Amino acid sequence: MGLSQTKRQSILVQFVRGIYTLEAAKSKEKPMGSTEMSVNSIMLPEHYEERGTLDLKKDKKSGFAIQLVFISIVVLMVVLARWFEFPIHSTWSTAVSILATVGMAIAYIMVHELTHGIAIRYFSGVRADYFFRFPFVCTGSKAFFNKASFISIALAPVVLWGIVLIMLLLVLSPDYFLSMYILIGLNFAGAAGDYVQAYAISKLPSSALIQDDGKQSRVFLAR
């Protein structure tokens, strides 16, 4: 004989409860959030809460990592220049070379931060905030970004301008070589903070949302 309707309903309820209990147990095993990629947002979703912050200027470990990466890249650039005997001589006077290099470096710093801002606008739809935080020019936003977007924003300038500067180094007059080479070093070594920040964010759960106001990065995870 078949089961009565009441019995079938009872079995169904127990089955649903079993699934719910299993999912609840899985969620407890992952207190840092689900593995689904979150969506960029101007407003923080209601079920998210702040779980931590990252301030590269105040955090000693991050500061040490940034210095180590910076020095390592500078040393590598010097070694490459000496190993391959790059042409560092120019028909320009020393004063002109220094002024040209400093001018290009200042311009690069501005376009570096502007590139961060353009990436922020692309991923969030809102304008970035720019300000000076000695000794850096900083870019921030009140928007909340998922991991992939945040890492893309952090690394966009070093990747984009790395390609552009290397191409310019190959096509410009030898008089520009030393200045361009220093600029390339500034691009890769000066982005040490971006590398450290991107690495730290890469360790977060896929569901994390990150807000960076230019002073610190705040991490938000689903409750």
How is the topology of this model organized?
Layout: H1 5-29, E1 48-54, H2 60-83, H3 94-124, E2 129-133, E3 136-140, H4 147-171, H5 177-190, H6 192-202, E4 209-212, E5 217-222
Antiparallel strand pairs: 1-5, 2-3, 4-5
Strand portion, in percent? 5-15%
Strands of the widest sheet, in order across it, are 1-5-4
Order of SSEs, N→C? HEHHEEHHHEE
Largest sheet, strands/sense/barrel: 3 strands, antiparallel
Determine the structural class based on helices, strands and strand pairing: alpha+beta
Uncertain residue ranges: 11-35
Rg on CA atoms, Å: 25 Å
Please give the number of β-strands.
5
Shape: elongated
Number of helices: 6
What does the average pLDDT come to?
A: 84
Measure the end-to-end span: 47 Å
Task: Provide a descriptive summary of the structure in words.
The relative contact order is 0.19. A hairpin with a 4-residue loop joins strand 4 and strand 5 (about 215-220). The chain is built from six helices and five strands; from the N terminus they run αβααββαααββ. A three-stranded antiparallel sheet has the order 1-5-4, with no helix packed on it. A two-stranded antiparallel ribbon has the order 2-3. Helix 3 packs antiparallel against helix 4 (about 145-170) and helix 4 (about 145-170) packs antiparallel against helix 5. It has about 220 residues and is α+β, with helices and mostly antiparallel strands. The longest helix has about 30 residues, at about 95-125. The protein has one domain (about 50-220). It is elongated and about 65 Å long. The protein has helices spanning about 5-30, 60-85, 95-125, 145-170, 175-190, 190-200; strands at about 50-55, 130-135, 135-140, 210, 215-220.
